[in-house]
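Hey, I was hoping to borrow your eyes for a little while. I'm sending you its amino acid sequence along with the backbone structure tokens. Take your time with it, there's no hurry, and the full record follows here.
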Amino acid sequence: MRALVLGATALLVSSSLAFAADDPMANTYGNTVISKGSSGESHTHYKKGGTLDATLSGMLGSVTLTGTWKIDDKGQLCRTYDNPPPGLPIPNPFCAQWTAHNVGDTWTVTFNGQTRTVSLVKGIQ
């Protein structure tokens, strides 16, 4: 009986790891991607079904966005916002190269000459 339980547990763990390897966004579900730069900060929540919500905060205030995401055939994460505010300084859809990250990872991205620090943090923040 013990061997059966251990075998079932190993199967579940290996299935979860295989899923994470197939889905570069798996570690973002239920967590928050925080991006910080000179123009402000964003908190983005990616959901398994291909939807997202984001809060952008800066000197001019705060705005909440909703939309969809997908990984395209070039391996880019493409975000399409439902109702972007006028003057949002990013294209819609916005696509950028993406690699899988773990909770606790921090990296930098550059867009339009501006470098931002991005972190994947635990939970919805």
